[in-house]
Amino acid sequence: MSQDSRRLRTAAVIPAAGRGVRLGPGAPKALRALGGTPMLIHAVRAMAASRAVSLVVVVAPPDGAPEVRALLDGHTFPERTELLVVPGGDTRQQSVALGLQALPDDVDVVLVHDAARPLVPVDTVDGVIAAVRAGAPAVVPALPLADTVKEVRPDPEGGQEPVVGTPERARLRAVQTPQGFDRDMLVKAHTTVTFDGEGATDDAGMVERLGAPVVVVPGHEEAFKVTRPLDLVLAEAVLARRRVTDGYA
Question: What protein family is recorded (predicted)?
Fold first, then answer.
């Protein structure tokens, strides 16, 4: 059997090394409780809910891999899903790259998912995977925007910001995760595309820099990112509804 015929596994990489300062002081954002369970656990379960995902790699804070491993060991996941924890880097881009390096050779499709999107439905995950399997090198789930967007000229002093343009809303999408990739394409992006400062925050944007196509599939309103305290309130409400209607654990 050739190597190509064996490379049919899908893995998810979850960078969870950030501090999440916009949620305030305390534990890293990924470890904040949602319904009594850390958001990271919800995010891992969201990936493991897809029968196509056989491996989830959690990229922990650089000095926190043992603690994250212990956290995962204290919760239940589908037996079919392998869990791996690796230490991350100083930026999200570095952490994703370290997660990619940890993947076994038989993985050919990679999802990159934000730990701060704990409630993404399995249908969204499966839709991203299916689009990559159908031949797209990079896939992002996204939603149309409800608000009009203005482009402004930022004022570094925090003063008034003049509007310089109004993009056509019908052409804009709010991008979510998991983003899905052909593994070779994503590895190429991480080894050839560089950003200054804090690095890339969007893996699909790195693939765009290579000139490769990125396609959009429908996202879901419950795949929102928990960034601010109000987001956590909304996530608690969604989780409570799921527990009543769907028997969600």
Answer: Belongs to the IspD/TarI cytidylyltransferase family. IspD subfamily.
Any idea which residue has 């797209």 for tokens?
136
Please tell me the total number of residues recorded for the chain in this structure: 249
Q: Are 199 and 92 in contact (CB under 8 A)?
A: yes
And the tokens for 130? Answer: 């299916």
Q: Does 43 reside within a domain?
A: yes
- 69 in helix, strand or coil? helix
For residue 204, what is the domain's CATH number? 3.90.550.10
**Residue 104, domain extent:** 3-141+175-245
Q: What's the pTM value of the predicted model, to 2 decimals?
A: 0.91
Q: What is the dihedral of CA 129, 135, 137, 138, to 10 degrees?
A: -40
Q: What is the pLDDT of residues 95-113, one digit of tens each?
A: 999 999 999 999 999 999 9
**Distance (Å, whole) CA 97 – CA 13:** 10
Distance CA 78, CA 121 (A): 16
First to last CA, the chain: 40
Number of DSSP helices (H) and strands (E) in the chain, helices first:
8, 12
The one-letter amino acid at 112: V
The answer to the question of residue 149 being in a domain is no
Q: How far, in Å, are 72, 92, 113 from residue 58 at the CA level?
A: 10, 12, 10
